[in-house]
What does this fold into?
Amino acid sequence: MKKIVLAYSGGLDTSVAVKWLADKYNAQIIALLVDVGQGEDLVAAREKACQIGAAKAILIDARKEFVNDYIIPAVTANAVYEDAYPLTTALSRPLIAKLLVDIAQQENADAIAHGCTGKGNDQVRFDVSTRTLAPSLKIIAPAREWDFTRETAIEYAKKNGIPTEITHKKPYSIDANLWGRSIECGVLEDAWVEPPEDIYELTAKPYASEAEYIDVYFEEGIPLKINDKGYPFMDIIMRLNKLAGAHGVGRIDHIENRLVGIKSREIYEAPAAQVLLTAHKALEGLTLPRELLHFKKMMEQKFSELTYYGLWFSPLQKALQSFMETTQKTVTGNVRCKLHQGTCMVVGRKSPFSLYDKALATYDKGDAFDHKSAEGFIKLWGLDSQTFAEVNMDKYRAGQKNNNKGIENVSETLAKSVK
Ligand code: ARG
It folds into this structure.
């Protein structure tokens, strides 16, 4: 093998991988650093890669692409895995894979490599994305091949002059980007232990004492303004991370079902994501008709699962993305959120496309709803069930009786066991 493009983070594993890959495959290593807003010193990390022995180290600022092509679709799809995880890490992986493939093609490399272990979701996301975008590229995951423990990896690093001091003291595994932070390992592996305060970086405690109101303005589903001031979406995310983070908004403690069959405990902090997803859903609630809302919710779950499972570049994901887009034409307006003590509550919403009609909804005077038409509607609405019940009266009654019997039996057994 001549050339391998490695997704390089500057951490222990990918640093060890530079040397390990070069030796094992007798290849030139091109380290690729992708800025997705992780807030680390990537220029220093690039130097480190070269110092360790990478033939070349490339740093790409991919934050705009991340926002436009990954976060925006995620917002329009209200993407959350298992009702908890806003897919922070999961969204960045297909983008990094795409850039790995781009650089591999540009550099005429034989393979791409990443630092994921065999236990996580990220390996799936890197591998599947790469296979989809460039089926002939080889994929190497050193951590699936070597048998280093953390200790022996540090030993190997020391022996080979790879700096380890920063990675040494961190007891957690952390992945961060613009959309939030994922934190696992250490004491967090005990599902009963409350996460210690020192794991958090974006969310503050003690919380700001006064509640704060913020208005988020969306146009066709895309957040464009905070408190009536326009910003590029990337700035909106960074501002909201600060604003909502100060109120402790966006902490998530989740026992998560990984694709590889493991349940894992992961802590997330994602203040901006929490606010934007909450506000976006509220605006959809105002502007989308019932059946579309209900159907979209099912599609949102599918979209989130596909994202989590590494199928970002699959045809279904693309189709769902265009479905989501077509639903957003009228999702325009302002949502007022109250940030307080770790919560983000929607307390107001307005839109030129609002479907909320006070004259229809009101119980006060000015009621425009046609009460008489309700009776006929309900007769027809229930006709189907009523017809069935009339035809099957006997069986229906018998079924009811059995059910009751069941309940009696249960209470008898209960009564006995109490005695
Ligand atoms: N569980 C999350 C996912 O599969 C995050 C994975 C990375 N987490 C970490 N702490 N390094 O998307």
